[in-house]
Amino acid sequence: MAPLLLPQAAYSQGAQLPPAVELHVPKPPTVAVGDGDAFLVYELHVTNLAAAPLALRRVEVLAPGTDARVLLALADSALGRALTRPGVAPPPALLERARIGGGLRGVTFLWVPVDGRTPPATLRHRLTVAVGDSGAPQTIDGPPVPVTTSAVVVGPPLRGGSWLTANGPAAESGHRRALVPVDGNASIAQRFGIDYLIVDDSGRTYVGDRLKNESYHAHGKDAIAVADGIVAATKDGIPENVPGGRAVPITLETVGGNHVIVDIGGGRHAFYAHLKPGSLRVRQGDRVRRGQVLGLVGNSGNSTEPHLHFHVSDGPSPLGAQGVPYLLDTFQVVGQCRRLIAECTRAATPETRRREMPLANMLLRFPER
To answer: Which Gene3D superfamilies does the record cross-reference, listed alphabetically (predicted)?
Structure first.
C-alpha cells in the first residue's frame, strides 16, 4: 500500500507531477485610486517546495470569467524588477532573480491597473515555469483571490503645505517593499506609507543649520486625526535625533519613534510616526475627532530629518499589520519632484483632487482647517 501524498524526493526521481510550487497572496488587494487611475497593489509569494531549482519565466494576472483577460503580464527584466528574494545574499542580479532554488521563495510585487468603474471581483494568477536546469516550460494556475472595492475615505493628516510625499506609493518605493516579520508573521504595514516633508520654493526642507531640527520647515507642525476614532496605542519619551543621526538604537520598539495609532473603524488603523517627544496630546483609549491635534511633527526613531510618516493598516501595530489603501477626501497638487527632494517643479495652477490617494513625489497642499 503506497501513501497518497508522495514525499518531496519523488520530484527528483522522475515522477510525472505538477511543479511543486506554492502560490500565496498574504493580503488580498483593495482597489486604490491615485493620479486619476485605479490599481491593485499586492504581493504574490512563490515558494519552490522541491529540491530542484525553479525558473520563473512569466507571471500573468488574469481577470475572472471564461475569457481570462490578462490584466498584467511580467517577463524578463520587467519580472526581475518586480521580484525580490528574501534571505538570498548577496541579492541576485536582475535576470537571476527569477531562478528560485529548492526550498526558497520569491516575492512578486504587483501593481495592476484596473477599470475603477468595473474592477474585477477576483483575480487569478498564471505562472510559466521550468523545473530544473533543462525542464520544459509548464504553466501553473493559482486559486482565485478576492478583491475589495471600498478603500476608506479620510481627511488629511496635516494642514497647509507644500508637503512632499517622499517614499510615497510607487511600484518600487522603499515603503512598498518593506516586508517585515513581527511575531512570526511577515507583513508590509508601510505598503502605502508616505513620509511628509515641507519643501519650500527653493526646493529645500530647511533653512539655517541643517543639524538643528528647528531649522526644518516640517518641525513642530500639527499632526491631526484623519477621522473620528479611538486611540489604540501611543509611545512617547524617545529623544529626537540630530538630523542624519540616531539618538537611540533602532529596534521594533523604537523604529516609529514617538507615535500615535488611531482605530478609525472598519478594522483600519491610522499610524503617525516620528513625533516630537513630549508633544503628544492624546492617550490610549481617548476618543478623537477628525482634525484634532494628536502631536507635533518631529524627528524621533528611524528618521533622518523632521517629517511625518503616515500610513493606514489593518491592525494596531506599527509594523506587524498589513497596509491598506486610503483615499483623501480633498487635497491640491501644487507641484511634482522627479525624485526625492530634487528637480521639483511647481504647477502653474494647483489641481484639486478628490477621493484619491497621493502617489510618490507629489507636492501637496492641504486645507488649513
So the answer is: Glucose Permease (Domain IIA)
Out of 8-17, 114-123, 227-236, 359-368, least confident range: 8-17
| End position of a domain, from candidates 112, 146, 180 | 146
User: Mean per-residue pLDDT for 243-268?
Assistant: 98
Any domain includes 284: yes
Q: Note down the domain range covering 31.
A: 17-146
Q: Is the pTM of this model over 0.90?
A: yes
Dist CA 80 CA 125 (whole Å)? 17
> 10 Å Cβ neighbour count for 42?
22
Question: Are the beta carbons of 244 and 329 closer than 8 angstroms?
Answer: no
Tell me how many domains the chain contains.
Answer: 2
Has residue 193 got a pLDDT over 50?
yes
Whole-angstrom distance, CA of residue 130 vs CA of residue 136: 6
Q: Of 134 and 298, which is predicted with more confidence?
A: 298
Does residue 327 sit within a domain? Answer: yes
Nearest by Cα to 326 from 99, 169, 215: 169
Measured CA to CA in angstroms, residue 41 lies from 59, 67, 116, 332 at distances of 15, 23, 14, 24
Sign of torsion over alpha carbons 86, 87, 91, 92: negative
Residue at 231 is within a domain: yes
Cell of 150: 471600498
Percent of the chain with pLDDT over 70: 95
CA–CA distance, 284 with 287 (Å, rounded to integer): 9
Q: How far is CA 298 from CA 195, 227, 236, 310, 344, in A?
A: 12, 21, 12, 13, 23
Closest CA to 138 of 47, 6, 16: 16
154-193 b/e (C-beta count within 10 Å ≥ 16 → b)? bbbbbbebbbbbbbbbbeebebbebbeeeeeeebbbbbbb
